[in-house]
Queue: 4 jobs
Job 1
Amino acid sequence: MDFELSDEQNMLKDSVERFVKDNYSAEARAKLAETELGFSQDHWKKMAELGWLGLPFSEEVGGFGGTAIETAIMMESMGSGLVLEPFLSTVILGGGLVSEAGSSAQIEAIIPEVIEGNMMLAFAYAEPQSRFDLNDVETTATKSGDGYVLNGHKAVVYHGTTADKIIVSARTGGNSRDENGISLFIVDNNSSGVTRRDYRTIDGQRAADIKFEDVTVGADALLGEEGGAFPVIEKVVDQAIAALCAEAVGAMQAANNITNEYMKERKQFGTPIGKFQVLQHRMVDMYMEAEQSKSMSDMLAMKLGLDDETERRKAVAAAKAQVGQAAKFVGQQSIQLHGGMGMTDEYSIGHYFKRLTTLEMLFGNTDYHFKKYAALAS
Amino acid sequence: MDLSFSKEDLAFRDEVREFLAANLPADVKDRSDRGLHPTKEGQVRWQKILNGKGWMAPNWPVEYGGTGWTITQKYIASQEFGHASAPIATPFGVSMVGPVIYTFGNQEQKDKYLPRILNSDDWWCQGYSEPGSGSDLASLQTKAVRDGDDYIVNGQKIWTSYAQYADMIFCLVRTDSSAKQQEGISFLLIDMKTPGITVKPITVIDKEHSLNEVFFEDVRVPVANRIGEENKGWTYAKFLLGNERTGIARVARSKRQVERLREIAKAERCGGVTLAEDTDFINKLTRIEVDLMALEYTELRYLSMIASGKQLSAEPSLLKIKGTEIQQRLTGLLVESLGMYGAPYEAERAYEGRNEAPVGPDYAHGPMAEHLYLRAATIYGGSNEIQRNIVSKMVLGL
């Protein structure tokens, strides 16, 4: 049993931390978030050059062969700077689905392009009625000739705005909440019949609601087995949850550091507010939440490779529930301890609060994952 | 980073499991599972069995009788002990004064006391708190005045757990009243049979006798019984408190409490279904269980850091705070799970000579006693508020 990083992992951590330090000052990030794209193509190219976009892919396709542990190391450091580039959407979700379920032709066509930084992906799974249930799919894919026709409405597709290809879950059989009968399709974002409503999210990112009206795709758009996509979706979403937990840990640690420093500088009643015991204890509680989250995030990264499915799923639900709870607490209390300063859009702490707020809800909020854990534990 | 167990680890787990199945006395296991105070006889009997196996002091260096276990093996052993409700050794000897003796004591003291701790020949108690010195421990007033080769000790200690069983007490005493508070304290080992020592029981809110007042009136203690240097006792006392915090999380015991709650919930009925099907109850249990998992992996992460040579500051205070909060939430929920049978309660001695068991289902005997006693968990070992002060100062620099 060992929680320490190898030399190679420490190098990765140092290198991501350096990238964040050089490129993600609070001012630089605020500027970037206001651009139309919402992130930087230059940063994306740089990430490709550093090999990061190939992190989880096998060496045969040109990747680095990393595990969930390397992903967590990277996400934690990115979280500390609230990095905006669509690493999670493109590499972990999109790339994860293609490499898990794709034919060798699909993998060869897409993964090297992702690694090079030439192709972005997004995963359209949620629907207006589905809330957090991955099996609640009403979008349909009907067989037509050699291919399929897609109809439906996908909700809050992170980075659906900039993705070249969208991976869509759609029903080829079964009823609207069945786990069986769900299939995945790779759809070009500019296909005829695809209508997007692009918008900004509270965490400075970009997302879209996407409507599919009689969108025709070929047989080669089917990703994996027809009707059998659900286990793959669950597996890749578990990987995304582990990545988000790590990102939240980085963001919480950064928010705590900013707040802690502020408490040493800000004076009231002639003394730094950090000298007041009631505020000290609040800060200690925030610190403890971040520490517990770090432990859960590390635990999950290590357990994702487990063969024991129930153990693995319990680890996912427990980690997301605990981290979500902590993210809410740390984000909200960071604002509180800053007083009025915490309310200003110009100051960095509010942006941490906003990202922590969305991290709590993405892929199932705290209540959702507590219920999931309870069902698995009983 | 790696959480997997090696083949050797799994073999070790089987060894511990088999040892406990074959050697843990049923009466000792039953009291421990219910959360009742140990009897002296039962606890000593069990600790002698542990010492026979060489497992009395897993955290001691091998040269003094430690097991030499890796952190993974220590984790496995504590999990198995918790699951089997096997009591861990009373902390006062093996976890508290033992490490002080082998770290700061002289050869004579090591030779004299360490084997007796391992074999449970001496029952130790802790002379720290005084009526006027609780969280503000360094304000203690018990005095030791040098007289030839002896100190003459006068004063009073309080909240002394199991002093009524004790053969020895380790005591913080003031040897220099003119120095700054923390600089005039010495650390003495005192034989409880020395003339002038009186132990008075304190009845606790669980109606049992586990705490005491200990009075010292002109008690002669050989200077040879002082640990380390005169007036440096605070250093040794802090070292001891630091050691105390790591074991205090009691994760394995709390995991067993979760199992008990699930067992009871299957037997209790609520609104026409079992309590295990009641969503409010399950929601509460789940939240504790997830917090417990976070605590478990935090403890392991810290142990891993220590094993790799990293220096921790006050991080283990977190284990104390979270561990004791979880213990209290669990005993609170255990009592809640009993419904009306949470209310009937008598001190254990009330049953002596009576041929009847406590009223209610068998599992109702224990939870309230433990719930009452464990209100102390967030107070002892440095209250949780003091722990937060420590983290604030040492880790956050506030």
Note: The interface with chain B takes residues 1-5, 9, 69, 260, 263-264, 274-275, 277, 280-281, 283-285, 287-288, 291-296, 298-299, 301-303, 318, 321-322, 370, 373-374, 377-378 of chain A (CB under 8 Å).
Job 2
Amino acid sequence: MLSINDLRASIEGKEILKGINLEVKPGEVHAIMGPNGSGKSTLASVLAGREEYEVTGGNVVFDGKDILEMAPEERAAEGIFLAFQYPVEIPGVTTINFLKTAVNEIRKYKGESPLDAAQFLKMVREKAKLVSMNDSLLKRALNEGFSGGEKKRNEVFQMAVLEPKLAILDETDSGLDIDALRIVAEGVNSLRSPERSTIVVTHYQRLLDYIVPDYVHVLYKGRIVKSGPKELALELEEKGYDWIKAEVEAVG
Amino acid sequence: MSNETIDLKTRLITDFHAREAVMNGEASSEFHQKKRAGLALFEQLGFPTIKHEEWKYSNVRDLISVSYDFNAESSIGLAELEDLKVPKQEANILYFVNGRYNEELSAIISPVGQITISSLADAYKNDPAKVASFFNELTKDANDAFTALNTAFAQDGVFIHIPDNQSVEHPIILRFVSDAREQNVGSQPRNIISVGKNAHVKLAEAFRTLGDQRSFTNAVTEIQVAEEANVQYYKVQNESENAYHIGTTQVRMLDRSHFYAGTVTLNGKFTRNNLNIVLDGEHCDAHMYGLYFPDGSQHVDNHTVADHQKPNSESNELYKGILRDKSKGVFNGKIFVRPDAQKTNAFQSCKNIVLSPDATMNTKPQLEIFADDVKCSHGTTTGQIDEEALFYMRSRGISQSEAMSLLMFAFCADVVSQIKIDSVREYLENVITQKLASK
């Protein structure tokens, strides 16, 4: 489904990703871990098409298409979803209107007719229930004045509505207390399916107690330096990142 | 000063004297004496240059470089109005074509007991003393060349009186159309509106142009707001690429009255709006909302004044602009708090999005506070579209152009939503949506 080959990217002339290789198959959950500044969020941003980053090498093939030449909105329409670390507040645009526009723009991209208001509302209500999203938030301006937990829940809710093939969760656990974390994780788990793949980017292991990955990869200095089963996350939690750093430095 | 500048001023003065020469006894009337004083002031002040502090960023050189026919006839009828796509609404609608009332196109539907409404010319024929007593009362201290010029040449416009305790059910919509299909046309409408105690009214002034020749509108509106009255007043400008517009709205509020203004400039070559509100009463509240959208080489200048003269009143102001291409915007907001006006609350905000490196916005808040127990605040922002918000929307599948439109529409929404005449608000929403989609 997703194949990242020797991906290199830089920002303002500084190379952050120095040759990433990753294969994600349908239904798999991959965790990307690593110390601060290792390039985790950069990877998430480059996959979603954030324009500040310049891709300097490699390719990313998603469902048989090279996505690196695609605009962010095209990638979204192809089925890639990025849950933001810091969801943006947009005054004056209600969550419901925002999502209706998004759903219908994606349908247009796929050559489908737009949903009418009744169909859309019915679908949205079902999805809100699925991820325990309070209906009253839908009519408010997008993320404006939302608590940290509400913002992250709104990300998961948007994911439920847009039904992506690949969800990338960028530090979704940051700024959440344990209760909020659990609710958000339950939302993500309820959306797991054999067709939908997930990349969980996180610094800490605790999110992975709730969203259990199939594979764990450690990103360090712009490269994946170690991959393993879910137990690798526990090892990192216990021992920190220093031993990995030491291993990498030893190899040179 | 160029020869041409002297030319328009001289022409206007000569024209005034020529009219006066054929007036017979009317020349000695109170009304005409006020006009003559207007001319004298205009003669003394002359057209402002950019050396004048109030005109620093707005140069009228272009405006006064040609002559205009201030008496142009127009054959405009219902067919031409269709072209203007004027929204339909059950309302009192008064048409002024090239500054003169057009009865055929107009419809007054509110019952006589609720409202006295007619053209200024008709009102003057019926009751010269009454019209003369209201005329130039609120603007008499204005030291402004264009207001003085309007006073000198005032012929027509609207005269409205709403008796005490009347709630005017239907809105009043004044439509000013410049017919510039054949020649450069000028008009100087003068509107006099007096709202009685505890009376309620919603009114709008809409300015449009037909044709590609130049039009010059120099409008003055005087609004008296008596105790406990509630007035909603909107001004919408959607004129041509060759339309020059100078307008002054002068308001005086008495105790416990409420005044809401919405000034929306959608299109026009050169626009200067002066909105001056004198809060001459206690427990009044004045609200000023503004929105402007210049593109190409358009110029929009809003000057506002909230003059607090008595204690315990509030003024609240929000102006917003989106500037494109090589357009220029100017905002100057004055707040005066006079020595007697303790416990004043005055708020002002001006926010702008500048979408092109060649567009400029000049903002100048000006607070002069002579009382010590007051709450005043002001703020201005000028920025670009929020790139992070744009990326967020695009990452959900919304195209860049659609995301831009949504963000800009949202930016305008808190001003547009203040317009309480449905047809006017819906018209604005439609035109704004089209304008945002056009680029």
Note: Chain A has a mean pLDDT of 92.
Job 3
Amino acid sequence: MLAYIARRILASIPVMIVVALFVFLLLRLTPGDPAAIIAGDMATPAQLDQIRQSLGLNEPLVTQFVTWSGQLLSGDFGRSLISKTPVLRLIGQRLEPTLSLAIVTMLITLLLSIPMGVLAAWRHGSLTDSAVMAISVLGFSIPVFVTGYIFIQIFAIDLRIFPVQGFKSIGEGFWPFFSRIFLPALTLATIYIALIARMTRAAMLDVLGEDYVRTARAKGLSERVVLFRHALRNAAVPILTVVGTGFALMISGVVVTESVFNIPGLGRLTVDAILARDYPVIQALILLTSGIYVVINLLIDISYAFMDPRIRY
Amino acid sequence: MDASRMPEAKTEDVLVVEDLVVETAGRNSAKILSGVSLRVAPGETVCLVGESGSGKSVTSLATMGLLPKGALMARSGRILVEGEDVLTARPARLRQLRATRMSMIFQEPMTALNPVLTIERQLEEVLSAHSQMSAKERRDRIRGILELVRLPDVERMCRSHPHQLSGGQRQRVMIAMALVLEPKLLIADEPTTALDVTTQKEILRLIAEIQERLGTSVLFITHDMGVVADIATRVYVMRHGAIVEEGPIQRILEKPERDYTRDLLAAVPALHPREGRAAASREVVLSTSELGMVYRQPSLFRKRQGTVAAKDVNIKLKRGRTLGVVGESGSGKSTVARCVMRLIDPTEGSIRLRGEEIVGLSRGALRPMRKRIQMIFQDPNRSLNPRLTVGDSITEGPINYGSEPRAARERAMELLELVGLPADAVDRHPHQFSGGQRQRIAIARALAMEPDVLVADEAVSALDVSVQAQVLDLLDEIQTRLGIALLFITHDLRVAAQICDEVVVMQNGRVVEYGPTAEVLGNPREAYTRQLIEAAPGRHWDFPNFRPLAPGGPGSIEATA
């Protein structure tokens, strides 16, 4: 098991190198002078020269890449061109809202979608099944900004249970945090509930036809045990895959939700950085998102091995 | 069935099925079982025998209350297990009855155990679902039952997952699981069909032993008359969802009353080898020398280790002859077939097709050779593309090799007639044919390439005995007419005895014995060959002639072994 984990970790290093190379080349290979792009239209030649100097643009590409990766490894991601604060601190400030949103969303998703999928598969062809499928189609088809505003209308404006917008850190107490994060999380969750409920249903349908499920029933086990102990664990691998990639996608895809609910997270930072052409920030964000993808994929791979003892590459 | 002949159901019978009717659910319901009645007395082994689709598995699933929901349902009749009707029992009661009064083992030990749970966990949950035992009592009981089914190294077994066990070990675990609460009735649905003969023999003996010890009644479902002859006290013969004939084993084997039972018995291939045929040609069409296949697992940290799938295999196949390769699973017989087909690349040795070396040939250079050697696969339900018409399947190869589509189609129609199917089958799809017919189509497809060598990999193993006999006859006839050489891979010695001129016996990737069928099977020199022959079920019985094989008589193994 340890060897397996070590091998998975080693295998993810080249991926990160390729991503870093891509990010590096993104700025260097953009048509035109990167210094000019960074400096904007109003720059003086002296400013341009200073930027070139600070980015080391006069050096050969290879040297530039080595220096640049060296800086990254020592935690130096440069400074934002706009606010002049270090990129790492900028991101650090925005990470908590986004991660909170992603995690709460995933929790809501898992709590609702897996039982829904299991139930639909168990009662295959029944009204329950059709209802779950209908909810799935709805979840897929309504855009996030529509669901978001509908939830705000119902829960925040009409029922007044939750505030309309904003974010409070969990350090400021659970309820202030939860009441603000719940609506955006639920909004974001709709599409994942749809996706994962369907996935669970399909995987369970496959597994419920297996011989060992029949064996489990022949042993006189209760349906609950048959479904959750015998079937769901065998259906777990495809579900985990979707949960993992869904989670990674979520972190990069929170842009709209954060805008609707006015959460100062990574999504907003990304939008702002792109609009302002804040290249160091964009670079760092790409690196961060790819890093998250790689780590989550790693976790999925490792969790496979825990779920299914036959998996040992 | 003739109800008046049915013996009176006695109250002490462990299982009584009365007039059971099972239909498909839905609007156009079709009868799957039309009034099945049977009974199993305490301690008895009753065999339910029939071909695929006869309804024997449906009968057993109905007894366990395991008919697939929404697909099949019991319409009428009663199923009494120790006097309690299973069909009217509430779901909770039914769950209680399972594993405590009746339990079941299934055909495929590979898939019947949950792959992600340990053996101990899977046994333990039976105990915790049905008893109030303490953790320690459960632990002890699990170890006790695993010892009873003769599993080695019980502690390690407990911690293992199913994929770490062999097929025979898994089936022992299944038996342990079924019997851990000592139910009165054990339903065994083809429990040894997927196993090798030697393993089958052990499992059958184990069931008999445990039965004796615990006094369990066994309802044994099988298609194999050999197994029936070895274990049954009474037999029910099923066909088309009804019982055709019923009686004590001896009577059924000696004086079957119904034609169907007779046909079924007559179709069992005899174990004594066919007469040697005079060689029609001296030309060797296929030969291998020192053929070997080692699978190496690339590993980052550990040293590379290889699995030897075949080693030093030397065979020669002449035009118009049939060479059998027999052995148990893992013996390397399929590896040899795949190497010869160049579906995999052997790691050592050479393969000559009509004198030409084919090992090491590139894809392009191999192309003209492919035509000369064709394969028939085991499962005709999966080897034909369901989306292609039969005609397209047959003509695809020849057209690839430059035949005119029209000519190829005409040829396909001829071939279909040659294999005993109507020529208009060309426009139909595989699902419109039965298993036996599909295998005929597969044969026609292989013949369309006009090969010199036909490789049949377990080509009749998935077929019912009666169909099996027809397909074997067909292969024989085609061989006589076209002079094709046949490399016949099988695990079934009876089949090998019927069709092969020569046999290669393989074990652990090596050739153990090689020679004319009459000699190898009639007078085996090697202990392993003898062991295989002795494990063949029903070998004391001469089925087609409805009599026991006289010890020392013609065809008897003991005479020569």
Note: Residues 284-372+451-560 of chain B form a domain with the Rossmann fold fold (CATH 3.40.50.300).
Job 4
Amino acid sequence: MRSHLTVLRCLMLSTLLGWFACLPAAAGEVESSGFGAVVIPQPVKPTNASACVEPVDIMRRDHMKFLLHQRDATVLEGERDSKYSLVGCMDCHNATEPAETVVRYPDPQHFCAGCHLYASVKIDCFECHADRSLKQLQQGQLDQPLEDQFPENQPGSALLSLHTFHQQLGDTGGE
Amino acid sequence: MANELDNIELRPARRRFMQSSAALAMTLIAPGVLLYKTGQAQSENEPGSDNKDLPATPRWGLLIDTNALSEADVDACVAACQQEHGWHSDAGSQTAAQWIRKIHLTDKQSGQQTVLPMMCQHCADPPCVDVCPTGASFKRADGIVLVNKHTCIGCRYCMMACPYKARSFIHEVLQDQLAVAPRGKGTVESCTLCVHRIDRDGANAVPACAEAVNRDGRKAILFGDLNDPDSEISQRAKSHGATRLRADLGVDPGVRYRGL
């Protein structure tokens, strides 16, 4: 009986070790296991900035505190110069150029979504805030007439990807 | 109308005299009230509660000259606000966003037609703030009435309380909101007096609606500090008059109209 148990334990241990050994190879991909789909986050570093507003280890631990403090200071007291702004995050971590790299928050490839999904964090920042940098969009809006930006009675017209958006701008500009 | 804007500030010496004479009168008339009266006077004299040494807090407001606004101008105001904050409304929709809208007024006796822009009036005593169960509807220190969407639960009591119908509710999921105006489903929104511009430019700020109609030195919509008697808006209100809409409600709107 005891030997049976030892064999079973060895088997379980080796399975577990083998599973962990597979991890580096499967990182960033959807791994199907008996427990369901697991996505190991591998956030991509932005190329348009050399460093974050704080060292990486501090940001990993405390970014939510910075954002929470900043949001109250901004909304209630009108302080808008803080370096901890969600818009600032998106300007680097989900830049709009090139347009093909834009990902939405529901996509696990989104810089925020990857870890939030992994850690089972459900946060609703992006129900109100844009989930990507919009410098390009705002710049375009200043020159575009309003009816072109918001085609009337088009359900989901706000859901266009930037690529489609630019295409549309090109189309209307050509007419 | 003009003298409504005048802030009657009693001089400290005169105020003290009034207080002490009031206290004396209380002693003579109703001794039981004396403790309450002197207690109040002391708390007013505490350091920190007396504002005479501190810089005066501004109260931002608008003076809208309806004589200078054509219907096209008001449309331009609405379009500018939409562009600035990234909202749009389908004509005739019952649930459309309404940060600012066009109002037609007809004087029943003379038949005179007036068109004016209507938005959050940024009241000194805002009913929307009174009724909000979470404190999401709030008034900033500088008098701007806002919705803190982080704490708004979308109950819409403020929409019912507002006598100007200035607020609207977001019914749809949104995406790609502008950085200056985060807005999302399930929250109430209204005119912010272009608070992002005010935080950036202070007294020199020009809200988007004003920017759209102030051309060639004309100031159809004037932004300024209502608390400062020397500001342009106070001076113009003094010389030309400024009407509060539904002044009978006693909410003291910060948006004032001329020519009504």
Note: The helical segments of chain A are 2-26, 56-77, 86-93, 111-118, 125-128, 135-143, 146-149, 162-174.
